[in-house]
Amino acid sequence: MSDSLVSRSPSSSSDNQATLTEWLNYIQQIHVSAIDMGLSRVLPVAEALGVVQSAKDDAYVFTVAGTNGKGSTTAVIAQMCQAAGYKTALYQSPHLSVFNERVRIDGEMVSDETLINAFNKVEAARLKCDLTLSFFEMTTLAALLIFAEADCDVWVLEVGLGGRLDVVNIIDPDIAVITNIAIDHVDWLGDNIEAIGREKAGILRDGISVIYGATEMPNSVQQTINKYQAACYQVSKDFSYRENDASTWQYSNAAVTLQLPRPALSLTNTANALSAVLTSPLKVDSNAIEQALQTVKLAGRFDYREMHERHWLFDVAHNEQGVEFLLAQLLPLWQQHLAKQNVGSKNSSKTPTIKMLFSMLGDKDINKVVQRLTTAGLPISDWFIAEIDYPRAASTEQLQDILVKYINSDQVHTFARLTEATNAVIDGSQPQDLIVVCGSFHTIGEALAALSE
């Protein structure tokens, strides 16, 4: 470890008053790459911190992998456990506005002070082991250490990328959830469903239960289930759900049928989460389940808001499957929106349209996402696009070149920064319109930051 690297560490400051921002900036610099799959470097540091043993001895662990829906699924599991009286830790990534969103105990973000204290301890262990760690590895270890020191009863952990080689996988789950499997992150996980499924199923352990939230299962996942002799509960085979009306839905498995209040999150992810909770030995009764469903929320997941005298829908959909999921919910919402705007009545001056505020990362399949959004039959009149402030961001020119293959160029409005595009979509819309913001976690985060200003 070089002296220059150590000297830049906030923990080496004489007054030890480094801010959270300074710590996060430092952590981003200490490893050669932002993403570095594998557990060989992180395990010695984790063992030095005692987090692996703490989780095994003191906590019940839900680990959630999958291509889409991990955030909503983990949020619902955590809310149900919390409502049942368990001290519940929730780890998610990435964040939308502030880093603290990633690390929560009983629904509350941990403080800057708590994170800084954990970073100091992780940094000391890392230096003692003479290893470098990626940003995600360092920050995940800090979260796990916080949960261990807080003596949480339940840990709900969202896998960052893949499963088998993700740092979250240093913790043995008691129950695993695989939400779904689609093509994404091909540079790290492979370019076919079987390869990606093998990586996702890498979170399984001998004899545990796994919830599988899609009707199609790759052979690689089934083979991994067989290898570990895991008990698999799959949607449409072992549990099912259906919408009753706008306010209620029904969940069924071999043991129970429940009539439940409809949550603000998707029923697909909610059903997967409920299956995981019901499969566990935790004591979570129907009152706790209903209370959780009435209160659970997650920013950026089909997140409807009214701000600046406009109607907004924020969704982090960033791949083809995510967009299909968004559209399945957006089409009914649009009909409800039209009804509320009294379209066709004498009081209706203009027909509402949809405005898109859009940007994506350059390593995503932008073409497929745009193609699906532009052929969904929605009245999208204008697209406001800009480059996200992120190293892997697609350029404005790249986004524009793809969009004009599907829509007229005069419908595309380009800006240098998403802040400018956000302000422009307000000025370029009417109060009766719906503004849909999607394409990336970073798109949502930057738009929300611009709106808060």
Structure write-up:
The protein is 40% helix and 17% strand. The two termini are 42 Å apart. The protein folds into two domains: 3-295, UDP-N-acetylmuramoyl-L-alanine:D-glutamate ligase (3-Layer(aba) Sandwich); 303-452, Protein-Tyrosine Phosphatase, Chain A (Alpha-Beta Complex). It has 453 residues and is an alpha/beta fold. Strand 15, helix 15 (396-403) and strand 16 (412-415) form a beta-alpha-beta unit. It has helices spanning 3-7, 20-27, 42-49, 51-58, 70-83, 112-129, 135-149, 186-189, 193-200, 219-228, 267-279, 286-295, 320-340, 366-374, 396-403, 418-427, 441-452, and strands at 60-65, 88-91, 103-105, 108-109, 154-158, 175-178, 209-212, 231-234, 239-243, 248-253, 257-261, 303-307, 310-314, 354-358, 380-386, 412-415, 434-438. The chain has 17 helices and 17 strands.
